[in-house]
Design brief:
single chain, 362 residues, mainly alpha, two-stranded antiparallel ribbon, globular
């Protein structure tokens, strides 16, 4: 396990929480989209995913089918549980996190990680699942790349595939899938793969290398890039949540810098010590899936007891954040982790074509 990356997972999930909290605190902020920069946590997740998939499969023989089964065992169970839970809540007449209509095709496409239009947005019933749609698409592409034995060629192949998809998106073609799977944000997975290749090739750092100062400077530059990107887009009158080519060029590059800084520290033997954040990193996927529901619920509760204003916004945060943390931990410990362990035990009974590498956070 690369501990620094697990801690980074927790921070990335908190950033996404902050952006969604901005929907409730926006009316009392100087600018309603002031917390939009938190969406860059998604870019960190995409870079991390590319890195982890590349490093965890290097040096082992694994067929595309086995790879996809292992990834499905990690991603699918808890996502299905949360999605079905939201569906059942909606069927009672409530409207969790903006679900105003339940249709069979909505449920099926959500469970199959297929993008579709709902209420003017292309998102599944669990709105944060749009990122999972991209993750699953990345896994399918990467599974095909496992047929390439040499890591360097595999990394170049990933860059070529995703760059080709992005360029195809410039063509005057129509169709929801075409538009969805040719977004520039896809290149962030390839950037993570590039980081993975560099990490595996990087030898021992020279004696006396100032790893702490270098990593600190890189993270500071990344933070300035993230915040600066939002300031520039607001000045231009564009959405502060970056999109198009601006997103991977600004937030994606910043994510590469942050992940690279954490890897540099790890290679130098410097491990960030926070048992809390490490535990939260383990539970970050569950936290990510449920935090929006708890923000929505907290807003309903706060509306009953506090008038609109800063006090209500603070109460929403005071209820939703610890509730999301607790729910994420409980979901991870008693549902996500046991289900994953059970599924992987079944997978491990299958004949293995090669030895497993040292475990990596995934």
């Amino acid at each position: 396990m690369i501990y620094n990356l697990q801690i980074l997972r927790a921070v990335a999930s908190y950033l996404v929480f902050l952006t969604h909290f901005g929907l409730y605190v926006g009316p009392v902020l100087p600018r309603p989209d002031l917390l939009a920069f938190g969406a860059s946590g998604v870019d960190v997740f995409f870079v991390l995913s590319g890195f982890i998939m590349f490093v965890s499969t290097s040096g082992r023989r694994e067929s595309p089918g086995e790879f996809l089964l292992r990834r499905a065992s990690r991603v699918v169970p808890v996502y299905w549980i949360v999605t079905i839970g939201l569906t059942l809540i909606a069927l009672t007449g409530l409207r969790p996190i903006g679900i105003v209509e339940i249709r069979t095709d909505y449920v099926v496409q959500s469970l199959l990680f297929l993008p579709f239009s709902r209420g003017g947005f292309i998102e599944p019933l669990n709105s944060v699942g749009w990122t999972l749609n991209y993750e699953m698409f990345f896994y399918v592409v990467f599974a095909g790349l496992l047929l390439v034995p040499k890591p360097a060629v595999r990394a170049l192949g990933a860059a070529a595939v995703f760059l080709a998809l992005i360029l195809l998106g410039l063509l005057p073609a129509s169709g929801l899938y075409w538009a969805y799977y040719t977004k520039p944000i896809l290149i962030e997975f390839a950037a993570g793969i590039g980081l993975g290749y560099a990490y595996l090739r990087l030898g021992v750092l020279p004696a006396g290398f100032p790893a702490r100062r270098a990593a600190g400077a890189v993270v500071a530059a990344a933070v300035l890039l993230i915040l600066g990107g939002q300031v520039v887009t607001e000045a231009l009158g564009a959405s502060p949540e970056l999109s198009g080519f601006a997103r991977p060029l600004v937030w994606g590059f910043a994510a590469v810098l942050i992940v690279g800084a954490m890897l540099l520290l790890e290679r130098a033997g410097i491990v960030l010590k926070s048992r809390w954040l490490l535990s939260q990193g383990n539970a970050s996927y569950s936290f990510y899936l449920v935090h929006n529901l708890l923000l929505h619920s907290a807003a309903k509760i706060a509306a009953l007891v506090v008038a609109p204003g800063i006090a209500r916004a603070l109460l929403i945060f005071a209820i939703a954040f610890p509730a999301a943390v607790a729910a994420g931990e409980l979901l991870f410990r008693y549902v996500e982790a046991p289900v994953i362990a059970a599924l992987r035990r079944r997978l491990d009974r299958r004949p293995s074509p090669g030895p497993l590498p040292a475990p990596i956070a995934s």
